[in-house]
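Severity: low
Component: inverse-folding endpoint
Summary: output formatting inconsistent between runs
Steps to reproduce: submit the following structure tokens with default settings.
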């Protein structure tokens, strides 16, 4: 999955609130450092960024220039008050995995076992969608370009939060997940189709996705410390996840450890092709290097052909467009696009190849600057989106010799502004509940089994004097259901790591017959795909 880079938090410090806009000298450029000087500049910047975001437990960084890893280093601690990390400490990197899935397909294209523009049904004959007219039209390229027409995060509740579904059960649900937009018209981030892409890899190669990427990519690159699936991650060698879980809402309140292992909060083994990887900067530097070399390995052999490398960076759909950079937004792209497993955009007049990743308690990113034969990654074990914004743009500016903008100060300021908005939103949610109308029926009337075509069953039962709601395939999503406003009720999940949900019932002849859902918090991650559920009483 891909967590929003603007994670909101409610703990606003007076220091953050007082930061003003940085002074600007538009388009100021100095000499771009290299080698040891580049490593020293990035090291100093990361330390400064962490000092500005003191709640961040750990950051891990890799920088590659001219084919060499000039910096691979860990900063901070595995968990608050815990042991220091190093360059070998594991982080969940979530959707950075998508580029690996694209590379797996590229290898199979080189071998003649897959074609980018061949229908998916060539490899998966039972593949079908909720729009049957698309069944024979969707190609392998479409699967990994976010352009089929699914809404943002459609189907993610099949595996987020941690679910007990198998890969085959996820595939069986695909035909029922709603498609809201036109085919190949607009960009909508979709983890679900990368799960399908992983099954194409399996069908064409004769081995599961994780086995293919292990033997054909990780082993070949010497990435011996990287795991395709997080279930094998050793907690003693991992950075532990951190986040803010209230009060009053998720992404607000004090920073705290939210799990004693990666897999406790992030078990996507059934959806590994969309976000399964666990790695460290030492290993990921090897991945960055082979990307910059268009598939060429250090010994001169190839992981995939240069033609396949170029194709994976070829834009397939427009994400966004703008008038370009301004003094206050020097990194704003004229056009951001999605290729295959990579976002491609302009940044300060140069081509950026990039991708982010987010899991509960982790945000990460990879950036390639091909024109400078340079790339870098940043892995974190908390949900400080403004910190990762500063790291992404600040390290890029160091590599490019840009000295005109203070990304750290600007990100601290934006975080304070976002925190204030989130606190106000939480207060408004509570005020609406206090002033809300009572349900038109006794609470017991809403009890029953409610079924969605792609998710399955959600059970509402009487418990004590109230109601208890339970998502049948998501163990952490269960808790009290209480009155909010009229026919809208809301949850209070005991597991505060999860997002609460509004349930709005439609009555016919004095009885509830259908229901829809949406997240309570406006800051909820899009993978809480409550809004795509269409519940009917069984």
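Observed output (run 2 of 3):
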């Amino acid at each position: 999955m891909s967590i929003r880079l603007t994670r909101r938090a409610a703990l606003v410090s007076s220091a953050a609130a007082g930061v003003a806009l940085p002074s600007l000298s538009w388009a100021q450029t100095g000499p771009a450092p290299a080698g040891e000087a580049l490593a020293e500049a990035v090291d100093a910047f990361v330390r400064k960024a962490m000092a500005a975001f003191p709640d961040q437990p750990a950051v891990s960084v890799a920088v590659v220039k001219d084919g060499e890893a000039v910096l691979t280093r860990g900063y901070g601690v595995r968990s608050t008050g815990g042991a220091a990390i190093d360059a070998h400490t594991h982080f969940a990197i979530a959707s950075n995995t998508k580029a690996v899935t694209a590379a797996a397909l590229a290898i199979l294209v080189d071998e003649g076992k897959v074609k980018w523009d061949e229908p998916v049904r060539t490899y998966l004959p039972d593949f079908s969608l909720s729009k049957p007219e698309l069944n024979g039209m969707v190609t392998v390229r479409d699967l990994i370009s976010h352009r089929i027409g699914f809404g943002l995060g459609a189907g993610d509740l099949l595996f987020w939060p941690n679910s007990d579904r198998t890969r085959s059960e996820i595939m069986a649900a695909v035909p029922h997940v709603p498609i809201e937009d036109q085919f190949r018209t607009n960009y909508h981030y979709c983890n679900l189709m990368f799960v399908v892409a992983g099954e194409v890899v399996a069908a064409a190669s004769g081995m599961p996705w994780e086995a293919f990427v292990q033997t054909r990519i990780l082993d070949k690159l010497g990435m011996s410390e990287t795991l395709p699936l997080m279930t094998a991650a050793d907690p003693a060698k991992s950075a532990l996840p951190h986040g803010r879980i209230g009060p009053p809402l998720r992404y607000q309140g004090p920073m705290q450890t939210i799990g004693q292992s990666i897999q406790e909060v992030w078990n996507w083994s059934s959806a590994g092709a969309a976000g399964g990887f666990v790695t460290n900067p030492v290993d990921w530097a090897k991945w960055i290097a082979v990307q910059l070399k268009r598939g060429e390995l250090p010994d001169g052999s190839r992981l995939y052909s240069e033609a396949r490398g170029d194709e994976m960076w070829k834009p397939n759909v427009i994400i966004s467009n703008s008038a370009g950079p301004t003094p206050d937004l020097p990194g704003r792209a004229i056009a951001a696009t999605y290729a295959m497993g990579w976002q491609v955009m302009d940044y300060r007049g140069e081509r950026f190849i990039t991708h982010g990743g987010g899991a509960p308690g982790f945000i990460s990113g990879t950036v390639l600057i091909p024109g400078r034969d340079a790339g870098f990654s940043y892995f974190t074990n908390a949900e400080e989106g403004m910190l990762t914004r500063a790291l992404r743009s600040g390290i890029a500016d160091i590599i490019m010799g840009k000295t005109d903008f203070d990304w750290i100060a600007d990100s601290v300021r934006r975080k304070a502004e976002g925190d204030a908005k989130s606190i106000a939103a939480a207060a408004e949610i509570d005020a609406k509940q206090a002033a809300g109308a009572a349900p038109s029926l006794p609470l017991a009337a809403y009890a029953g089994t409610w079924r969605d075509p792609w998710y399955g069953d959600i059970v509402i039962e009487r418990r004590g004097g109230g109601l208890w709601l339970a998502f049948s395939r998501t163990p952490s999503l269960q808790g009290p259901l209480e009155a909010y406003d009229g026919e809208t009720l809301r949850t209070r999940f005991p597991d505060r790591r999860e997002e609460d949900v509004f349930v709005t019932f439609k009555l016919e002849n004095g009885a509830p017959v259908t229901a829809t859902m949406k997240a309570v918090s406006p800051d909820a991650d899009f993978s809480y795909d409550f809004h795509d559920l269409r519940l009917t009483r069984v």
